[in-house]
From TrEMBL:
It comes from the Bacteria. This is Phosphoglycerate mutase. It holds the Pfam family His_Phos_1. Substrate binds at residues 7-14, 59.
């Protein structure tokens, strides 16, 4: 199966530097985020997509709607690729990073999950994805989730994984 992994377009929370892991929060693509998704749509225009899989967070579905204008593929929501539950929802990312700095891989704060907890959840999603009949899938997710995907397919250590960075609407392509 050919899988395209993509981070969502820029959001109002990205601009404000805020954490968001609650699907009920009013987080939406900015004008730039919509433009990024439009460019990704052009990049994937001639790519076969049997299905698009998004997280429960609306920014991934909003990105999918723009990308899907050339495909009309079914869009499926899967909670396994939700953003990391930071325990800092609606709070500055810098506060979250400071709170986990003592042990970035294992620290769980304010009822959130650690990076390794998140990794286990995302790897469970990949196990599920392997059982699907599709030949080509687009997965639209979040930067932390993209780190797990990239580390898995590049055979990186957990320490190497945590320093990876992905731009909005950046696309990775892998065989699964």
């Amino acid at each position: 199966m050919k899988v395209y992994f993509m981070r969502h377009g820029q959001t109002n929370y990205n601009v404000l530097g805020l954490c968001n892991d609650n699907p009920e929060d009013p987080v939406a693509l900015t004008e730039l985020g919509q433009s990024q998704a439009g460019k990704a749509a052009e990049q994937l225009r001639n790519t076969r997509l049997d299905r698009i899989i998004v997280s429960e967070l609306p920014r991934t579905r909003e990105t999918a709607t723009i990308v899907n204008r050339y495909h009309n593929a079914p869009v499926v929501v899967h909670p396994g690729i939700n953003d990391i539950r930071s325990g800092f929802n609606n709070r500055p990312v810098r506060e979250y990073q400071a709170a986990i700095a003592h042990d970035p891989l294992h620290a769980r704060v304010n009822g959130g999950e650690s990076l390794l907890d998140h990794k286990a959840r995302v790897l469970g999603f990949l196990d599920w994805l392997r059982t699907q009949p599709d030949r080509s899938v687009l997965v639209i997710a979040h930067e932390e989730t993209m780190r797990v995907f990239a580390a898995r397919f590049r055979n990186l250590t957990d320490e190497e994984m945590q320093v990876l960075a992905f731009g909005n609407c950046e696309i990775l392509e892998h065989e699964l």
